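Give me the 3D structure for Chromate efflux transporter.
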Amino acid sequence: MSNYFKIFIVAFKLGFISFGGPTAHLGYFYDEYVKKKQWLNEQEYSELVVLCQFLPGPASSQVGIGIGTIRGGMIGGFISFIGFTLPSAVMLMVFVLVFTNSQTTFSWIQGLKLVAVAIVAQAIIGMGKKLTNTKTTITLALFVLLLTLLIHSVYIQVIALIFTGLYGAFFLKSKDDSNVGKRDKLFLIPKSIGVISLLLFFSLLITLPILSSITTNVWVQMMDSFFRSGALVFGGGHVVLPLLESEFVPQNLISSEQFITGYAAAQGVPGPLFTFATYIGTSIEGIVGGVLATFAIFLPAFLLLYGVLPFWDSIKSNVYVNAFLKGISAGVVGILIAAFYNPIWKSTINTELDFALASVLFILLMYYKCPSWGVVILGLIFGIILY
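Predicted structure for Chromate efflux transporter (387 residues):
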């Protein structure tokens, strides 16, 4: 089996079972890529998550692209993205074309949300053992947890991570950091590619709105709206929804009812929530519109990630940067715990039955070492039968 095919198969499987939003996706990725496949270790995974937290766009998709790039270069990153995104994109296209007028309720989704609880809990325990193994790092994680839960702002995560990173840069340096530059490079991408990617990103960000303002071509308008939405979003897929609503509903390209229906459908499929753009594009211009929307909203994620990755190994090899990353890595654990409570726990665990079933799934996953796909199937069965 070729390396590229392996990358695609693993990502495609994750695209089918990764319910629960971007934080849950990071849990699925950790379980598959770090624990099972060992394509990268906990520290490398944490550093990649940190980088993608600071970049605009869909963080979990960017992490998947980064892991594919580690395994198979830029082509591997693209293949990983295709595998992870394809299931949800196709499901939403089919929903538009076949079920768009359906009043079906997806009560079985509750079973899959229970799986997300188990998956994220496992990831928190696994990453916590490696990244918060001292009183200092535990305190940093707690600090980020408290800020994230108590201050409701899309920017608070970034602010909290910067603070923990600065603390780490001053107080978490160690003798081992002198050897950090000797680690093998993870991303073998030419720096020229990075420069070209960043130039293309900013060029499109400037020129597409200008082109859209001087033409009535719906394809140009769609490209502009989806590209800007993907380029200017911090905080994950849920934040992009109001941007997309303001871009398409007031212009009567899609009705408010269609938008709400699509939002519900996007919540019910696995994979990245950014594929909600696929639903909107398909609703406006059919399958070709769906393909264009998907390409446009994810393009900034590629350009930004490939713009930064060629310089990432050199940047993090600095002793102070490495200590900075230690502080941020502890903060990431705090973010995971906060997201585990809200929205994952709050929107899922409502009754004693919910807690009991989530506990069963967690024990099977954590201690009986059941594969994540098996736990997903069991959760789906719970959802169909009991909800």
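Residues 276-316 form the longest helix (41 residues). Let me know if you want a second pass.
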